[in-house]
Amino acid sequence: MPHDVAVAGHDDITTTLDMYPALTTVHVPHEELGRAAVRLALHAGEFAESRHQVLGAQVVVQDSTRTSGR
Question: What is the spatial distance between Cα 21 and Cα 63, in angstroms, rounded to a whole number?
């Protein structure tokens, strides 16, 4: 049954705005990710003990995964 299926995408691409039902997706902060990668690469010696960095991603809930009040 169609109401038993939930679909989600990744990368929050703009074409998902044209889909019906609207596609739930995960927004990844690519610019922030790139800046952090460059910063770590250019200053590797300063981060000798801690090279790990946690960046946030955000789930953008749309109609493709919403329940109908069940």
Answer: 6
Q: How far is CA 7 from CA 1, 22, 39, 60, in A?
A: 13, 10, 35, 12
Contact 11, 70 (CB under 8 A): no
pLDDT digits (tens, 9 = 90+) for 1-45: 557 788 888 887 777 778 888 888 888 888 999 998 898 888 877
Q: Provide the 10 A C-beta neighbour count for residue 35.
A: 12
Q: Which residue has the tokens 């991603």?
A: 57
24: number of Cβ within 10 Å: 19
What is the number of other CB atoms lying within 10 angstroms of the CB of residue 12? Answer: 19
Average pLDDT over residues 48-61: 79
